[in-house]
Amino acid sequence: MSEPKILDGRALAKEIEAELSAKVSAHKEKTGKTPVLATILVGENPASVTYVRMKGNACRRVGIEPLKVELPETTTTEELLAEIAKLNADDNVCGILLQHPVPRGIDEQLCFNSIAPEKDVDGVNVTSFGAVTMGDKKAYKCATPYSIMTILTRYGVELEGKEAVVIGRSPILGKPVAMLLLNANCTVTVCHSRTKNLPEIVKRADIVVAAVGKPKFVKAEWIKPGAVLVDAGYNEGNVGDIDLENAAPLSSAYTPVPGGVGPCTIAMLMSQTVESFLAKE
Hints:
The protein is an alpha/beta fold. It has two domains: 31-116, Leucine Dehydrogenase, chain A, domain 1 (Rossmann fold); 143-261, NAD(P)-binding Rossmann-like Domain (Rossmann fold), CATH 3.40.50.720. The chain has ten helices and nine strands. The chain has helices at 9-31, 46-62, 77-89, 108-114, 126-133, 143-154, 174-183, 198-203, 244-247, 261-280; strands spanning 5-6, 36-42, 65-71, 95-98, 163-167, 187-191, 207-210, 228-231, 253-254. The protein has a six-stranded parallel sheet with strand order 1-9-8-7-5-6. A three-stranded parallel sheet has the order 3-2-4, with helices on both faces. Strand 2 (36-42), helix 2 and strand 3 (65-71) form a beta-alpha-beta unit. The N and C termini lie far apart (51 Å).
């Protein structure tokens, strides 16, 4: 078997950012306007603080103005909803991102759903999810599933008629990526913690998407030779949800961890913010 192809998300993200930067620059020159992405951070979760900083840096690289809204850990659902309402009403803001997870006690999904669909550039509210599921190409997608699909399509992975197994059913990763794969004419099986005979199901897959949040959960012996492996996990010690060290050599292509799905996820957030900006003009 030939060497597997590395689906390099970092390199692809750079390419996408360069494309976006050119678009924003041309539009700024014509109109004098700058896209603004508002990021809401509630509390001081260290991982969330890091992610928000990374997103701010990506904004600057592309020419988007980052607007950081920081709220205390004690923020209530009502206070957060009021903050989102302000951003919805602000004509300068073309994208709103509520950093997940929010502190316990806040109704996260209610807050996600209060983001105006035309500013939901992270694709987290139910209106966006429903529109994506129905095949609306203009609807904003969840950023990580969109990253996965972009990596697969831009690296020329054949999807039509292929059997895809998604391990994980979270509302912002497993479920939406299953819908996007289905819309791309894959035959999709969604597995989860209650699935029986998981290794046998994974062995059928031409494409495996692992999104369970458990280090090296997917074993090499579960993989069909020549399968495409998409590791959407990131765990302590820089390891994903697939035992890539042993499984990757069996594959035809795989996303590395780190440097695979993650960098491209931020690029997709930037891409949808630019889309929202251009749609307003």
